Amino acid sequence: MPPAPLRKVDLGRLEMAVATDGGALYVRSPLRLETYDTHVTAWLDDWAARAPQRVFLAERDARGHWQELTYAEARARVRTLAAALLDRGLGPQRPLVVLSGNRIAHALVALAALYVGIPYAPISPALASADSGALQRILELLTPGLALVEDGRRFGAAIDAAVPESVEIFAAETPSGRAADLAPLFATPETPALEAAHARIGPDMIAKFMFTSGSTATPKAVITTQRMLCANQTMVASSLRFLRDQPPVLVDWLPWHHSFGGNQNFNLVLRHGGTLYIDAGRPTEIAATLANLREISPTLYFNVPGGFEALLPQLARDKALARNFFRRLQLNFCAGASLPRHCLDHLAEIAAQTCGERILMMRGYGATETSPATAFAGEDGGFLPLPGSELKLVPAGERHEARIKGPHVTPGYWRRDDLTRGAFDAEGYYRSGDALQISETGGLRFDGRLDEDFKLATGAWVRVGALREQFLEAFAPYVKDLAIAGADKTNLAALVFTDVAACRALARLGARASPAEILAHPAVLEKFGALLNAFAAPSRRITRIMLLHEPPQPGELTDKGGLNQHAVLARRAALVRDLYEGRGSAAAVVALETLAVS
């Protein structure tokens, strides 16, 4: 039977031109980048005038009801908040920080800062429940003048430990201690100073400080300008032309303190006059997402691989959910890593059974420093640079490091001139640290992180990215991700994040069986042993793996949603030692040619 047809959607064109100079490959789009706006909040003014009653943002309240905010209402509230921020003398040396999840209050305060040229920094709320040392170092770097926290009680301990007394603090809900109620700021009267500040905003003004993920050192504050954000949205729009004809509707959880959710997705909705339903779900807590998708039919759906993998079995078993999800969906979009082939095939099968069509899956490549979109790819082709994006592939051993230039690239790191100098080469290209190569199918192929590779005691180099892809393909659908160990060892080992649901089906165990019982089941161990033995070619010989049932923890994922290899191995060093030394562990261990449970 022939495959179901792809749903027709106007994607525009993407092309790639390649030139060689001195061993480096210069890759760019030959398409001209269209003129872009000078500041983000021009879009808010525009849509408040053109479609004042259209819903811009929606979130569920404590009773589960959608609370909606139109473009006209959002602009009015943003302007009063902006006047309040101006009264406090905030600016680059005293920016605004936001310690909150994705909330309407977060969006309004952030847009208010952008409206009058005050930089703001969205900070992961996970830092409020973790060691306050990381949050304190971030605030020492930024020297903020004002902070917004989501909940005064929830963040009280972090505030007391990390936020200097000189910093004014407001809470979006439940004021407590030093955190005052945000609501009175919405009554601030507008003044001529508001219009004057708004008129002064230019493309090179700092819009945001975005923090890269870091595991052991203080994350770097990426200077993100108005030009970067506006240019990047025009670059994205050039390959998603259908957005010109239909305002997008998103049901999206991706966090705003990461570039994918906070720069690409949020700004895509705002630029095109769309509607963003704020999803309180997560790949590991999917119930809220499912409830939202049963009510709201998205026109685009963005997620990371783990999110799509969690959604797939729900779509397969719930026909009503699938019908609503696919009803007007024009595009799926995955970033952070590639979705495994078996997941792509399963998603296409469910779509074909539900609506008679397949939905295109696109992938994005970029970084926090590139705001983030640099190149897009279809399901089977390589990445093609977006208009305005230039890449230089510089030989790095057997591979090529990707370096990036364009109006979407950061000018550097805040108050870290040393890091800024090291981040750019003599021609002004940003050194990404990623390896890219020309793909056999056309375009570019991601070839791993250069700093993840290591050398065995035998002197042989291990290319972690390529080995990881091969392992995931060979062990599908039982593995979600893995961290490969072996630096200065004689053999390779791996910590494997398993798909517990797939392993449960393999073991034929009921819902009462714990994840640990599932992974210790003889059928599961036998299957992993057979796969490991079949995988053991000389170039990819992993001799021992530990099966983990819990997902990666905060700090073990990169800002792009991929696994942070270094962080996982550092945080789970005791498990790695157990793996190599054969000591007791609560996890299931599979060894090459033998099976054992430690």
User: Order of strands side by side in the largest beta sheet?
Assistant: 1-2-19-20-21-22
**CATH architectural grouping of the largest domain:** 3-Layer(aba) Sandwich
> How far is the first residue's CA from the last residue's CA?
47 Å
Poorly predicted ranges:
594-598
Overall strand count: 29
Number of helices, counting only DSSP H or I runs of 4 residues or more: 19
Summarize the amount of helix as a percent range. Answer: 25-40%
CATH superfamily of the largest domain: ANL, N-terminal domain
Mean pLDDT: 92
Q: Pairing-aware structural class of the strands and helices? A: alpha/beta
Largest sheet descriptor: 6 strands, antiparallel
| Overall structural domain count | 3
Give the key terms.
alpha/beta; single chain; 5-stranded parallel beta sheet; Rossmann fold; 19 helices; disordered C terminus; 598 residues; globular; GMP Synthetase, Chain A, domain 3; 6-stranded antiparallel beta sheet
